[in-house]
Specification:
The structure holds 2 protein chains of 2 kinds.
Chain A lengths: L5 H131 L9 H10 L1
Helix pairs in contact in A: 1-2
Chain B lengths: L7 H8 L4 E4 L5 E3 L3 H6 L5 E2 H23 L8 H20 L7 H17 L7 H8 L13 H33 L7 H46 L4 H42 L3
Classes of the chains: A mainly alpha, B mainly alpha.
Chain lengths: 156, 285
């Protein structure tokens, strides 16, 4: 329990350990701790940013989805309208076509009737001539009486 | 010397004597063979056991912590690094809450003080006879294994802290500021009267200043010395028959458990007071 040179020795040892600690222990460990703190803070910040961007993306998706839905319904509407138009058009064309066919048939029938009438006239005139021949028992000059016969036929 | 160990007082004395190397009265250098011889050696003698154990423990701690420092990364810390970081975080918190200056030596020094004093104090929990007995088997007669029960160790640290306090006081406040702090308070007056108050102030402040290192070192020494003494007294009971030995064992266990508190607390107090004193050196009053 004497105070002696150990005092100096202990002081030197103490200072050496302080120096060692200051040089080789304290800076690397506190440095690593600070760096880790920074990394964690950065990570949290990045996570926050990611969440924000995700939210933004979701909003964008929602917007695009509604837009797309709108566009789709517009297209459907247009298509339906176009289909209706086409049907209407087809109907019109069909009616016109029918009308045309009907007219053509009518004119055909008219023509046939006229042809038949013409034939009939000519036959009637022939028959009339033959009848008159029989009646008169005499040969009539067809050429001489043609005007009379034609008049007769027109009257029929 | 053999007869010294047979009596109770001899046993105690033997346990309280350091292994001292110095110059004998007849002029030759060597180890002291008794407490009286050791004290005769005067100032130029050295306690080899105190030096050995303190440097061994300090070296071990520095080795462990520097290994942790080498593998410390910003990634996930492993066991050793985790422990080192926990200790450093604890010290750093204490320094930051008390010390407001910007001196890079303070935190590492406080860390060194805390772990080193704690390690030296913990040697107190090793049963008092184990290592001295082992040393005796190797022919070493005196062996005190707790360096903090040697006032040289505690005062060595506290005086180093004291010189740092003086250094930073003068560095921060200048010689004039430091001297002013010692002479112009606690009693202050207008100019002609302040001359009269000067010596009174110097005496009061001088005592307060010198009390810091003395109390810092002696507090640690006193607590650990008393704890060691009680372990030695308990150890004496082992020689007193089966009942005394059994109760001695129980007492030793109880005191060791209680002593853990003292061991940690004294290391902590030394650390905190060092921070406080160094902070006072950096602050203007």
């Amino acid at each position: 329990m004497n105070i002696n040179a150990t005092l100096i020795g202990q002081s030197i040892a103490f200072l050496f350990f302080v120096w060692f600690c200051m040089k080789f222990v304290w800076p690397p460990i506190t440095g690593a701790m600070a760096e880790r703190k920074k990394k964690i803070a950065e990570g949290l910040e990045a996570a926050e940013r990611g969440m924000q961007s995700q939210e933004l993306a979701q909003e964008k998706v929602q917007l695009q989805l509604t837009e797309a839905k709108q566009q789709a319904s517009e297209i459907i509407n247009q298509a339906q309208k176009r289909a209706n138009e086409i049907v209407e058009e087809a109907k019109g064309t069909a009616v016109q076509e029918g009308e045309r066919i009907k007219t053509a048939a009518h004119s055909d029938i008219e023509k046939e009737i006229n042809k038949a009438k013409e034939q009939l006239r000519s036959q009637v005139s022939a028959l009339a001539v033959a009848g008159a021949e029989r009646v008169l028992n005499k040969e009539i000059n067809a050429d001489a009486h043609k005007a009379v016969l034609d008049e007769l036929a027109a009257q029929i | 010397m053999a007869s010294e160990e047979l009596t109770a007082s001899g046993y105690i004395k033997h346990h309280l004597t350091n292994l001292t190397y110095g110059q004998h009265a007849d002029g030759h250098w060597g180890f002291a063979h008794s407490a009286a011889e050791a004290s005769e050696m005067g100032f130029w003698a050295i306690h080899v056991d105190t030096m050995f154990w303190s440097i061994l423990l300090g070296g071990l701690l520095m080795f462990i912590f520097s290994r942790a420092a080498k593998s410390a990364t910003a990634g996930t810390p492993n066991g050793l690094v985790n422990f080192a970081e926990w200790v450093i975080d604890f010290v750093d918190d204490n320094v930051k809450s008390t010390f407001h200056g910007n001196t890079p030596i303070v935190a590492p020094m406080v860390l060194t003080i805390f772990i080193w004093v704690l390690a030296m104090n913990l040697m107190d929990l090793v049963p008092v006879d184990w290592i001295p007995h082992l040393a005796t088997m190797f022919g070493i007669h005196f062996m005190k294994v707790v360096p903090t029960t040697d006032p040289n160790a505690t005062m060595g640290m506290s005086l180093t802290v004291f010189f740092l306090v003086l250094f930073y006081s003068i560095k921060v406040k200048g010689i004039g500021g430091f001297v002013g702090e010692l002479t112009l308070q606690p009693f202050s007056a207008k100019f002609p009267f302040s001359i009269i108050l000067l010596p009174i102030n110097l005496f009061l402040e001088g005592v307060a200043l010198l009390a810091k290192p003395v109390s810092l070192g002696l507090r640690l020494f006193g607590n650990l010395y008393a704890g060691e003494m009680i372990f030695i007294l308990i150890a004496l009971m082992y020689g007193g028959g089966i009942i005394a030995a059994t109760s001695g064992g129980l007492l030793q266990l109880a005191w060791a458990i209680f002593h853990i508190l003292v061991v940690v607390l004294q290391a902590f107090i030394f650390m905190v007071l060092t921070i406080v004193y160094l902070n006072m050196a950096h602050e203007h009053h």
